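Methods — Computational structure assignment.
A single polypeptide chain was analysed. Its primary sequence is given first, followed by the predicted tertiary structure written as structure tokens.
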Amino acid sequence: MTKPITSVLACAFTIISLIGYIPDVVGQPVSGKVYSVVEKQPEFPGGKAGLSQYLAETIKFPGSLMRQRTDTGPIAAQFIIDQAGTVHDVRVTSKPLVGKARKGMEAFITTVITAVEKMPRWQPGEINDRPVAVFYTLPIEVNVK
């Protein structure tokens, strides 16, 4: 017996945001210095819980990948949070997929990029109590159930 697709879509996956971490690599925007290590990390409005809620409400997993039960593997959004808390230079890394899954994954990556670009302003990172631009990596875990 098959369940209606709407009920499967409604509860088939969850998106869980892990704690953002700062890698050793420093990205450079058009001008200015971007830090990979800061005294105070940038913070999303509402903290980690607010970020998880925002991502869960904003990022939609493509039905084509869900129907195929595609394992997307690890996904990470990398971006710069400037001195004003605005997000810039969003990139998404993921494992390569082939065949039908590739098109669905491209749509999913576009959704992730759009969601990150439209994030509200963060509380910027700080060094010596001054706001600074920070290179930020946000791992995103997708569970297809």
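Note: The chain has one domain: 5-144.
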